[in-house]
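HOLO CASE FILE
Compound: glutamic acid
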Amino acid sequence: MSTPVFRFAPSPNGRLHLGHAYSALLNEKLARQTGGRLLLRIEDTDPARSKPEFVTGIIEDLAWLGIVFETPMRRQSEHMNDYRAALSKLDAMGLIYRCSCTRSQLAATNANPADPDGQPFYPQTCRAHGAKPGVPFALRLKMDEAMARLSRPLKMPGSVERTPDPSLWGDVILARKDTGTSYHLSVVVDDHLQGVTHVVRGADMAASTSIHLLLQELFGMPHPAYRHHDLIMHDARRKLSKSHGDQSLLQLRSQGVSAADIRLMLGFA
Ligand code: GLU
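Model generated. Tokens follow.
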């Protein structure tokens, strides 16, 4: 049997908190238990949100936790050509189209239902009428045509979760106007190029996985096994988040909390 490959893939848009620590430690544990490899990937395709000091912070926090990743780590911003190549393939298959709709046009859409992220379902305006020429555009997937190409029903390997249904997302954006790629596209391309066999990440990503499975089918890539772990919660209603100012590992450390305390707290003693 081939060596299992796990990965931890944070976005450098803030310092890591306990939720990240849990995800990283779980991947470390599974890699150790299975004699697998453990990769670190920095998901920094969004130049407006990614900051070099957060990349440094991530490396520092993970080293402090005592987690050893293979080097070199992969930084998505250094691999834009890989994402462009993947988009070209979908373009050659006739499965993507340009969308020039602005944020305010999309917000004005009274779509019912919304996608799993709560965003309005795209009404396919640019698919029907073409994108406005001479203005920035995003690339969207023709979801129904993509689904029609599947030669077998989508299944989520390694999981007993509900049947994946990417159509809930509608014509999802695969390349943003400002970045030329998207989380969904980059994550699928990278997991494949890095030979990832086990994707272990938070339950907040579970709905996105359906899109990833669909893209893998379209590209003829094997599916990794997926596991979506419970999230560390701030309280009963809200998960921990950088944007809500929840305590970072750095803050905990400066209050005298040790890496051993964190492992114990999260059940990895
Ligand atoms: N970069 C994503 C995040 O920090 C995680 C992506 C993934 O694990 O697939 O939320």
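CASE NOTES: The first strand starts at residue 5 and ends at 8. The pocket of glutamic acid is lined by residues 9-11, 43, 187, 201, 205 (CB under 6 Å).
CLOSED: yes
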